[in-house]
């Protein structure tokens, strides 16, 4: 943090000596701690707060940010090369699932950042892959 930045504000001191800090100034301190190359211990010392307490605040902020940024759903894009024809015409011309021979493509961006693309002509295999992707646990 800057030298002219305000110090951490104590909102209340209880009978037991436990301090309650102003949420806005606490959030500023946590944001400063999240900057690359910053020493959490040094900032805690400058603000007169226990370094372990500041580390706990930083950990909670990171967990909160991780929970809000991870989606439970995997976005799916379906590309079709069929021109404009009515849905009933396409249903009438469609082959049974087991007899399809053209390759299908599935692309998924997993919660851990991995981009998975699978292209094959085995519909049952693709169905198994999609089923497995539906059970991917997030937050790990």
UniProtKB/TrEMBL annotation:
<dbReference type="InterPro" id="IPR002514">
    <property type="entry name" value="Transposase_8"/>
</dbReference>
<dbReference type="GO" id="GO:0003677">
    <property type="term" value="F:DNA binding"/>
</dbReference>
<protein>
    <submittedName>
        <fullName>Transposase</fullName>
    </submittedName>
</protein>
<dbReference type="Pfam" id="PF01527">
    <property type="entry name" value="HTH_Tnp_1"/>
</dbReference>
<dbReference type="GO" id="GO:0004803">
    <property type="term" value="F:transposase activity"/>
</dbReference>
<dbReference type="InterPro" id="IPR009057">
    <property type="entry name" value="Homeodomain-like_sf"/>
</dbReference>
<dbReference type="GO" id="GO:0006313">
    <property type="term" value="P:DNA transposition"/>
</dbReference>
């Amino acid at each position: 943090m800057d030298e002219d930045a305000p110090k951490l504000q104590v909102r209340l001191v209880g009978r037991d000596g436990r301090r309650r800090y102003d949420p806005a100034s606490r959030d500023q301190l946590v944001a400063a701690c999240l900057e690359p190359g910053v020493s959490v211990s040094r900032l805690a010392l400058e603000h007169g707060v226990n370094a372990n307490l500041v580390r706990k605040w930083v950990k909670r902020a990171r967990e909160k940010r991780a929970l809000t940024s991870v989606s439970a759903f995997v976005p799916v894009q379906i590309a079709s090369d069929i021109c404009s024809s009515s849905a009933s015409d396409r249903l009438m011309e469609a082959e049974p699932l087991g007899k399809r021979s053209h390759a299908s493509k599935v692309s998924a961006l997993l919660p851990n950042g991995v981009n998975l693309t699978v292209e094959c002509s085995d519909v049952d295999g693709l169905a198994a892959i999609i089923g497995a992707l539906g059970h991917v646990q997030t937050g790990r």
